[in-house]
Specification:
Blueprint lengths: L2 E3 L9 E3 L2 H9 L7 E5 L17 E9 L4 E9 L8 E7 L5 H12 L3 E6 L9 H22 L6 E2 L3 E2 H7 L9 E5 L6 E2 H7 L4 E6 L7 H9 L3 E4 L7 H12 L1
Parallel strand pairs: 1-3, 6-7, 6-12, 7-8, 7-9, 10-12, 10-13, 11-13
Antiparallel strand pairs: 2-5, 3-4, 4-5
Helix pairs in contact: 2-3, 2-7
Length: about 250
């Protein structure tokens, strides 16, 4: 059954007009009144919405009306099914160039990432600011929504606004025994294999920081270590930036 993200309070039995993005998708698929679809509404920032209605899980729905620019549905039963990863993993990475960031956001969402922080580091090729950065962030958020609809996830990961690595590190809260684990992908000698870290890990949440092609500079790594990051490696081979981030994510979730 086709799945659609509907960032609105949902309640069984109510009639609801789908938001523009979901409505367009329904029309592209040539769905008709009487056909069933699945809705989910747990998106970025939803936990702070204050709604007392169902959040999380997914809902049955039936299309009741279709117009040129609107689609009305009747919301059906709520199912408290979740297909999320056992560990909440947040990835922060220096953005790869060209369309590789789109691909990374899509695949990270499919794997179950909790959030994505695009960063600009010293060796970054892609450098975004202002309106261009805002447009890219909105685009990547829409890529995450589409990937969530496709893969069966009910929680759309948040794509944070683009920022510099230095600014992001300064804004991290103080760590503690209950804080997320902080891991840095590093090529420096003495970095602990990520698999070894996982065999001893017990924290249910982790932040994984990965650099651009060529990695982070020594000064950037030292700044990350000062914020409590532990250097880890993925083995002897040197992977492309987007491959490394996704490989680590697949191991961590």
């Amino acid at each position: 059954m086709p799945r659609f993200f509907c960032p609105a309070p949902l309640h069984p039995g109510e009639l609801l007009e789908l938001p523009a993005g979901a409505a367009r998708h329904v029309q592209v698929l040539r769905l008709q009144p009487g056909e069933g679809i699945t809705l989910f509404n747990h998106g970025p920032g939803w936990a702070q919405s204050g709604s007392t209605r169902h959040t999380g899980g997914e809902f049955e729905a039936v299309i009741t009306q279709m117009g040129r620019s609107h689609v009305q549905v009747q919301v059906g039963a709520h199912h408290a099914v979740e297909r999320e990863a056992a560990r909440s993993v947040h990835i922060a990475l220096a953005m790869p160039a060209n369309d590789r960031m789109d691909w990374l956001v899509e695949k990270a969402t499919e794997l179950g990432v909790s959030s994505i922080q695009p960063l600009i580091s010293e060796r970054s090729v892609l450098r975004l600011a202002g309106e261009r950065a805002d447009k890219k962030t909105a685009h990547w958020q829409s890529v995450a929504v589409a990937a969530c609809e496709q893969c069966g996830g009910n929680r759309v990961p948040l794509v944070h606004p683009v920022t510099t690595l230095a600014h992001w590190l300064r804004g991290l809260p103080d760590g503690g025994s209950q804080a997320p684990a902080r891991l840095l992908l590093s090529l420096r000698e003495g970095s602990r294999p990520l698999r070894d870290w996982l065999s001893a890990a017990s924290r249910p949440e982790a932040i994984f920081l990965s650099g651009p092609e060529g990695g982070l500079s020594l000064a950037e790594e030292e700044a990350a270590f000062a914020q409590g990051f532990t250097p880890v490696s993925l083995g002897a081979r040197v992977l492309r930036a987007e491959t490394a981030a996704l490989t680590a994510l697949a191991l961590l979730v």
